Amino acid sequence: AASTSEAVVATSVLPSWQDTAAKKSIVDFVARVTQAGSPDYVPPAERIAVFDNDGTLWLEQPAYVQLVFTLQRIHELAPQHPEWKTEEPFRSVLAGDMKGVAATGETGVAKLLAATHTGMSTSDFRATVHDWMSKAQDPRFKRSYTQLVYQPMLEVLQYMRANGFKTYIVSGGGVEFIRDYSERVYGVPPEHVIGSTAKYKYSFVGGVPTLTRLAQIDNVDDGPGKPASIEHVIGRRPIAAFGNSDGDIQMLEWTTAGPGARLGVIVHHTDAEREYAYDRTSKMGKLDKGLDEAPAKGWVVVDMKQDWKTVFPNATQ
Amino acid sequence: AASTSEAVVATSVLPSWQDTAAKKSIVDFVARVTQAGSPDYVPPAERIAVFDNDGTLWLEQPAYVQLVFTLQRIHELAPQHPEWKTEEPFRSVLAGDMKGVAATGETGVAKLLAATHTGMSTSDFRATVHDWMSKAQDPRFKRSYTQLVYQPMLEVLQYMRANGFKTYIVSGGGVEFIRDYSERVYGVPPEHVIGSTAKYKYSFVGGVPTLTRLAQIDNVDDGPGKPASIEHVIGRRPIAAFGNSDGDIQMLEWTTAGPGARLGVIVHHTDAEREYAYDRTSKMGKLDKGLDEAPAKGWVVVDMKQDWKTVFPNATQ
Ligand SMILES: [Ca+2]
Ligand SMILES: [Ca+2]
User: Which biological pathway (chains A, B) (predicted)?
Assistant: First the structure.
């Protein structure tokens, strides 16, 4: 009877995962913390699972989606900014000269973000993101970005919620950018999305209470900023964390250092054919120290090529 | 039949509220937004209600509870700080000279907060707050502070949750201070508490991942900071807001300026006998502009003396 029910679990749970060690680690962890009477039992209120976004829940190559948005917005806004023809980093963006953009460094990036992400109301920015997201397509896969989420990870999100977990996204990306689609695509409501934020100014604009996005960073939710944001917003230590890059190491450390059963998972991009293969030297989603530390820390490293039957939803394989 | 069911509602819902206009406003609002087919229907996911804490959910006189904690902690820590005998504002605190403390202004307050709220790990601070909260007593009511919450507001929290609302606390007070008791007293889990925050530093202390509370303010969640925090953390505009002071005006404006049915409520402390009576000139919870603006904005002003049958839980009246 035990083997029959295990076989049923194996096929009905996480169907896009191969029956390899990675899937077993996730399913075993959930069983341990949800089974009443288990020494590792965790009450539902404390079942918090956190997920990085770029490269963990959706693709991040050849460039973070929010960076694609930013560059395309510069092109869209250029007619209103004739000065950009000569002003860096705008000149390089408009000329398609990515090396020129890179040469402007962090100051350049800050200018691009300020020009595209600030100075408008929160609702106007939301509308701009929504409009872009509904039209933009990835050139390689010829799909909208919200269709380039990882089917196996959608199943993990749903599986954990079905087992009483609250699933939070904890991303270095802008929080509003993710909130645009997180509820309909991931089943994660806006209040469960934590990300980098701009400062807001509250004032009346045309008699209407308005939050205006300022060109000042409120919070950078990456690296050591992730455990800090988790503590600020959630106020509990998660018991499971999923990431894909060295920017997730502190979140994984913080999550798995707590008492009781803990789950740390790193998605390793090993599949150049179905998606991308990259790790130690990648500009986006660099995974170097995390790969070295995973064995000693007990973090599960998911080998995308070996462990996932499919990558994207409804993809012809 | 309608009158019978209305009578049942009147006695079974919000039992510590008198059957006055204030209660009717709350019950009518909830009915409008929850009734399927109503033009004001709001899906459960968007039913967000926000509550100020001090003076809205528990008492704040003669001093904010967190201020009482701060001053008592200075006394407890004084033996380890002989320099405080001569250094302001510590000298005045130890001498019980509140005018002397007040004379040190914001700089003095910052020093008191730094000495009592920062420099330790988040878990050590949590333990200190928890220990204090379990022992501290209000001198007038001879009760712990967690027994000095408002019974009618506990009923509102529960009533709104029973009607599919998510109830968030949005307080100018320190977020960890409220999280210590919010779940067991209010039924509000830590992740639904928004408050003022200190910056955290992530590092390994004795080989253990640790968040240390720094003497730098991360966020001041008061006045215009309230709508900004709501947008940062929740990412949706609430449809109901409860406050008690001018520090809640922006949160009330932001909430009630949205489309559809909206509820804004101000708790007016009018009951010197059972609690306190204060408004326009109070040092804690000053309510001046809010009283003036409430009628034009359609905000419900709760008259504690007239509208509440009881103030504290299980109180002998
Ligand atoms: Ca990532
Ligand atoms: Ca208050």
Answer: Amino-acid biosynthesis; L-serine biosynthesis; L-serine from 3-phospho-D-glycerate: step 3/3
